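We modelled the chain as a single entity of 558 amino acids. Its sequence is:
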Amino acid sequence: MKSLLTSLLIFASSIVFAQTKWTTVPAYPSQTDQITITFDVSNSNPAGKTPLKNYAGDVYAHTGIYLNGDESSWKNVISNWGNNASQPKLTFVSSNTYRIIINNARTYYGVTDGEQTITKLCFVLRSADGNQQTEDIKIPLYPPGISVVFNTPAVDLSYGDPLRSPVFVSAGGTVPISVSSTAIGRTQSIKLYVNGALKSESGTESLSYTFRADDYAGGKNEINVTALDIAGSADSKTFVIMKKPAIKNLSLPEINQPGIYYGSDQTKVTLALYAPLKKNIYVIGDFNDWRVDTDYYMNRDISTPDSLWWITVPNLQPGTEYAYQFLIDGNLRIYDPYTDKILDPWNDKYISSAVFPDLKPYPEGKTSGIVSIFQTAQANYNWVIPNFTRPSKEKLVIYELLVRDFVSTHSYKTLIDTLGYLKKLGVNAIELMPINEFEGNNSWGYNPMTFFAPDKYYGTKNDLKKFIDACHQNGIAVIQDIVLNHAYNLNSMAQMYWDNLNNRPAVNNPWFNAKSNFANPDAQWGNDFNHESSATQYFVDRVLKYWITEYKIDGFRF
């Protein structure tokens, strides 16, 4: 009697968000089934890329798999991106609709190790020239036997703990739960438990139950469903319904502005986020193992109701880096816009330890997206030149410099060794092309993501300070090329108010225009900051003040 406790929790056989839709036949395929997959790309939504919608040519699949639940990277990818000779070509069904048939996924993807199990099929559909595409599409496979399937609510257990992605409900609200079982034989029973108490059972392949928030305590409520078939196989799955507590309207202590506040007590930190119109916000991170917890439910500042949210995180180890995110309205994970360091799950692995020693690892499997860092008791940099006398503007000899191109190590430490050469050229000002975190590593930097965090690909924060200090010791001013007219899609302020249907900032975004002010498409870069907005004006002032005070930047190129 095999218990299928490790099978994936999947809540539907098709995806219906503002992205590529898909259906499979059979509805709950296993890795040895013949699987027919139909894609509807009319709502394809690839971040920063041209969608496949309304493309008229041949469509190909860039495809691989996840094995044994490891979703850190695709495995057994078929050929290389853009290789039309060897990547699968899809069958055209109708406008924006395509189909592919996989006779046996293990054979199709060349999985021969019996210890390996395909848990998801991964696709990006692309045009023949590779210029148009979909977002990542991930299709789950089911183990043979019996499986519990949640039709509603939408449940996600990909973070390894149900408390890392619970379902939320407010007081007075309800959560309709609809459960199905899939079995080779006949289902004998399905039972649903709430906090260990049996609440509903069925002798068929389906079960329904309505969770009424007022019948249960605030905080976490554990929902467990167990299904048994006539052959004795069983599957059991658990998720959590989090009953949200009442929001506390409390004055933000000591500061009245968004950002990270380090006080005299090095065992705690106060986080404040400007988030008008949002309904509830939790902070998740290393300090609570990325689990949603009512102890980390953010307060609203009483002086700015519905705008400034804050929380003080206690019991910290001084000097330890803590990764964290804000979980907004139960479904959006963002990094803190005011963080001075981020972890990037896609690009940090390419940063050498010689450039950035002891880089904190990403919390793989516990969250997704860019995460922010705070750290109390940080070591101060002792400036050799605390007050630099800048060259007069009329006598500037400026050298524009891209760190990654100027020195092969792409590091500030090596860049310091070149100052003698630049000084001999008569240079008295270096203009650094953008050094705040941008998307990717290999870029000119005009695709900014964060505005307070120096890009780690060039070195540590103190490496940058040491370079600026060395410039000042050599009579050289440092001008920062900073892009404040746009930001790209990974920017957390863009993500907070996003129009999924049109793949652009929403009209109520406090910082960005929904549409660019430039009529010429060639002048439209990223998401356009609305500089008539007071929120944008405040943010820009904070950014510039930070670089001047924290890094002693001498000037800016906008």
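As a brief sanity check on the tokenised model: The radius of gyration is 26 Å. The domain at 146-243 is CATH 2.60.40.10 (Immunoglobulin-like).
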